[in-house]
Amino acid sequence: MEINVEKRIKNSFARQTVMTTIGASITRVKPGEVSVEVPFRSDLTQQHGFFHAGVVTMIVDTACGYAALTCMPVVAAVLTVEYKVNFLSPASGEKLIARGRVLKPGRTLTVCFGEVHALQEGKEKLVATMLATMMKCEDTGLTD
Amino acid sequence: MEINVEKRIKNSFARQTVMTTIGASITRVKPGEVSVEVPFRSDLTQQHGFFHAGVVTMIVDTACGYAALTCMPVVAAVLTVEYKVNFLSPASGEKLIARGRVLKPGRTLTVCFGEVHALQEGKEKLVATMLATMMKCEDTGLTD
Amino acid sequence: MEINVEKRIKNSFARQTVMTTIGASITRVKPGEVSVEVPFRSDLTQQHGFFHAGVVTMIVDTACGYAALTCMPVVAAVLTVEYKVNFLSPASGEKLIARGRVLKPGRTLTVCFGEVHALQEGKEKLVATMLATMMKCEDTGLTD
Amino acid sequence: MEINVEKRIKNSFARQTVMTTIGASITRVKPGEVSVEVPFRSDLTQQHGFFHAGVVTMIVDTACGYAALTCMPVVAAVLTVEYKVNFLSPASGEKLIARGRVLKPGRTLTVCFGEVHALQEGKEKLVATMLATMMKCEDTGLTD
Q1: Model confidence over C60-94: pLDDT tens digits?
Q2: Are D133 and B84 within 8 A, CB to CB?
């Protein structure tokens, strides 16, 4: 991982305004692995009071996207091509922790695996799992 | 569609607090079809200024879930088992319109297809497509 | 659609040896749409006597891949990046008919939607639906 | 894992006629984990001479389905609800080894993760990864 990747990713994350809107933060940047967390807030729920599936998806998508970016050259931007998420348990708890990991880096496409755990009374419970395809974009004029 | 399904779904939607947080509203409820819209706001974006993929996913998940609920008995609640989303174009524009439609209702599982269009200078552009599995839950003590 | 696309696709299909192994044939090639069919055989089943999900997937993957190829230049080859399939009903009947359709063509990636119907006593029943990402490969030295 | 689960799964596998057709065998049955292998044959390929994606999918679907079955009661049958597969590298080599593993068992639905490796000159290479939803069916009158 090039030395300023972490800084570059954190700057990019800061421009993802929706992350601020939901109160998410990036908590770990390693080569091929990124974590994003969001504390529980009552304005992030679905009708039964759990985190909405869309919030779960949002943070693990972001974690996977930046995990992919750690494997790309500095000039690259990353776009989400597609993802699939399985919801394994109700997303209830004090906070959600999404971890994205690169399964297979590629010249154009990078495949990532993500997991979301809910922190429930200090214990982590797996609530969702993602399989995602990310794409390197060099022609966007953007560098993140 | 039982006569009060629309009312029941709108009440349930009103309790999805994250929908208020992002400014989404439910704009259509028909048997097997539900639409959810969200106007552009600068606090809902990813790093390039487009709607975040998670916002796109959130509204089409909700549209698909309620589309499934229109085919279920009154006592049922609906949970998202899993979904897959392909992102076809940048989600830029004045607003997003998500339409969820039931492909196959079932006793336990209902499969839905969703599309998200962005309204760009008055014209709709397809930006994402979803294939989702919804589950009827009778044992939750909840009725939506 | 360039004039020899149909011939090119049929030649390519003929080299997909597994299609011969399962007895599948390509029955329709139109711009953005391809159909593949396979008659029932007792050696293509899972443990309950229905077509195996893998056979269902195989023909709709091939139909989607060639549908994508109809939108690509002559020099291109197509590879399956990923797909998701929902199985809606048991795949029983006299034959399966898979139809692949391009949802969104792209320079590098093409997104396709596929459906598989089973012919049951002369009537078609929807048994599976696919959402797939196909990739154009120009550097393979292959032209299909 | 109940003592005869392995025997029950192998009997069920033997009735999956398509597994015989493609020359696949079940090589490992452990609680929550099942492996299926298929040696290379020239009649199982796509147009570039690699294993067809459908063959890759077929064996990992079967591995995941039986992995789910190891977590179910004796009276249960298992059906594939849906799956998503990412193809990471060309599926070339002497044989394919699919490993299915239960991520989350459930009363009705079980979520599995599968990987397919190709054996290439004695070394394993990851060629595909699956995320799948399996369903327990007690009302089929079938016991596998």
Answers
A1: 999 999 999 999 887 778 999 999 999 999 999 99
A2: no
At residue A4, the 3 state secondary structure works out as coil
The CA distance from C60 to C54, in Å, is 10
Q: What is the pLDDT of residues A75-95, one digit of tens each?
A: 778 999 999 999 999 999 999
Give the model's pLDDT for residue B74.
77
Whole-number Å distance between alpha carbons of A66 and B24: 27
Using an 8 Å Cβ cutoff, are C17 and D42 in contact?
Answer: yes
| A17, HSE (Cβ side, Cα atoms, 13 Å) | 11
Contact D113 A129 (CB under 8 A): yes
**CB within 8 Å: C104 and B126:** yes
- CA B2 from chain center: how many Å? 20
- Strand, coil or helix: D138: coil
Overall average pLDDT of the D116-131 stretch: 97
User: Taking Cα atoms as reference points, which of B101, B53, B80 lies closest to residue A53?
Assistant: B80
Output the CA–CA distances (angstroms, integers) from residue A141 to A15, A40, A72, in the order listed.
Answer: 16, 36, 15
Report yes or no on whether pTM surpasses 0.90: yes
Most D-contacting residue of C9, C13, C85 (CB-CB within 10 A), to test interface:
C85
Cβ distance D108 to B84 less than 8 Å, yes or no, reads no
- Residue-range domain boundaries for chain A: 5-137
Rounded CA-CA distance A54/C19 in Å is 40
Tell me: pLDDT of C100 over 90: yes
Q: pLDDT of B26-73, one tens digit each?
A: 999 999 999 999 999 999 999 889 999 999 999 999 999 999 999 988
ipTM at complex level: 0.92
Chains in contact with B, counting 3 or more C-beta pairs less than 8 Å apart as contact: A, C, D
Residue with tokens 């969001």: A38
Q: Which of B12, B43, B85 minimises the CB distance to A18? A: B43
Domain B5-137 fold = Thiol Ester Dehydrase; Chain A (3.10.129)
Averaged over C117-144, what is the pLDDT? 85
How many A/B residue pairs have CB atoms within 8 Å? Answer: 108
Q: Could you tell me what percent of chain A has a pLDDT over 90?
A: 85
* Burial class of residue C2 in the structure, from the number of CB atoms within 10 Å of its CB (0-12 exposed, 13-18 middle, 19+ buried): exposed
Q: Nearest CA to B57 among A130, D94, A127, D33?
A: A130
CA distances from A54 to A91, B16, B109, D111 (A): 11, 11, 20, 19
> Which of D88, D97, D76, D83 is closest to D132 using CA atoms?
D83
Interface probe with B: pick from A9, A16, A18, most Cβ of B within 10 Å: A18
- Chain D residue with minimal CA distance to A109? D88
Instruction: Say yes or no for a CB contact (<8 Å) between D46 and C16.
Output: yes
